[in-house]
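Could someone model zinc ion with this protein?
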Amino acid sequence: MPRIYITTPLYYVNGDPHLGSAYTMIITDTLARYYRLRGWETFYLTGTDEHGDKIAQAAAEAGMDPKAFTDQVSQTFRAAWDLCGITYDHFIRTTDPYHVRYVQELLTKVYEAGDIYFDRYGGLYCFGCERFYTPKELRDGRCPDHLVEPTLIEEENYFFRMGKYQERLRQHIEAHPDFIRPEGFRNEVLAMLREPIGDLCISRPKSRLTWGIEIPFDRRYVTYVWFDALINYVSALKYKGEEMFQKFWPEAQHFIGKDILKPHGVFWPTMLMAAGLPLYKHLNVHGFWTVEGQKMSKSLGNVISPLVMKERIGMDAFRYFLLRESVFGQDADFREESLHARYNADLANNLGNLVSRTLAMQDRYFKGVVQPLDDPPPAIDRQLAAAFTQAAAEVETQVAHLGLSRALEAIFRATDYANKYITETAPFTLAKDPASLPRVGAVLHNLLEALRVAAQLLAPFLPDASTRIFTALALPREQWSAYDVPWGKMFPPGHRVHTAPVLFPRLS
Ligand SMILES: [Zn+2]
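Reply:
Sure, complex below.
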C-alpha cells in the first residue's frame, strides 16, 4: 500500500492562526484527504513550537508562567484548526514530555559521536530571530527581518558540526532534483551551500534563557529553539512507535513557507545525517500572501482570520479561493474583488447551478427516480463522460506535482462543460413533449454521473460541498471514493435522488 507522511511547520505560539498558517493547513489538509480517499496509508502531523526567548517574553507580558501560557495558546491553535475541519492525525507540542526526551536522546547521540563541541563564541545576536548573524547576512548592519541592530554577545556555547555535512547535503540535492521543490527554492539552498555554512550554535545559557529543553550533558544550558523544534517531525513518529517511524519516515513530505527555508533545507538534513537517520523525501516550499497588494500586519489591520472567513463565506469557499488563486511556490495576493468574482462565477454559477438545475429537473420530471441511459449513447453523451474522465486524469497528474490550482481548474472546466451540455441538449424544452421523456431521463442520468464524478474529484478540496452533493445523490458513503465505477454504473435502476441543496448562495 502506498504511503505518505505530511507535516506542517509547528506554529510559534506567540501569535494567532492567520492567512499564512491557514494556507499551509489547507494545502496539507487537501493532500491528506486526497491520499486517504485514494487508499494511501497517510499520517498528517501539525502542532505548536513552544520554547525560546519570544515565548518567554510573551508569557511574561501576559503575566503568566510560560507553561500555562503555552497551554493556552497551543489550545487556541488546535481549536482553530478543529473548527476549520483540518484532519490532522496528531498534534505535537514541543513541550510534550516524549518530545523533550527524544530531543535529549538525539543530542546525546550526536554529542557522543563527536559532532557537538563546546566553544567560546562572540557574535551578533538578534533577539527577535533568536539567532546569531554573520556580518554578511545583515543589511546595513541590521537584522533583515527585524531591522534592528543585533547585540554583540560573547559567551561559551555548544556547537553542531554542520559544516562537516555541507558537501554530502549538496551532493544529495544534486542527485535528487525534487528533494526541495519547486526548483527556485532548491536553487536557493544550493546557493547557500556554495558558501561555507559553518557550524550551528545550538545552546543558550540559562543565565539568558531558561525556557527550553535542557542540554542533557550540561545543565547550565538549554537547546536552541530550532534544533529542538525540527526534531518534532521524527519524535512524533517515534512516539507512535518504532513501526510507525519505519513505515512513514521514508515517505516524509514537509510543507513550509519560504521564510523558514534555511532551517528546513540546511539545518534539518545535516542534523539528520549526524543522527544517522535517513533524509526526508521532499521539502515543499510555498510562497507568501499579501492582502490587496500589502504585507499583512496587525498595525495595518488587514489580517485575514480563517475563522472570520468561515463565518462569512464558509470554509469550502475560503479553501477554494486560496487553492485556486495561488500557484504553489509563488506569492499570491488576497483581493476582495477576486474573491467575490471567483465565488460567484465558479462556485455559485458554475458548480452551484449545475447541482441545482440537475436535481430540480430530476425531481420535476421523474420525482427523483433515475432513468436509463441511451444505448448506444449519442456522441454528445460520450463527450460529456470523456470531459470528466479527462478531468480525473488531470487531477491525478496535477496533485502529484502540487498543482492544486490546475487540478481545480480541470474539475471546473468539466462542470462548465456539463452546464453547456444542459444548454445543448435542452432537457427543459424536450420535456414539453411526452414522447421525448426517455431522452430527458437519459440526459439527466448523464448529469447525475457528472455530479457524482465532480463530487468525487472535489472531495479533498471542498469536503463540505462534496458531502452535500453525495447526500443529495443519495449515494452510500462507501461509494464516495469508488473512483473506478464506470460512467453510467453508479445509479442502479430505481435509485432515487433528493432535491438540490443551495451549495453556494450568491454573494451580492
Ligand atoms: Zn531578527
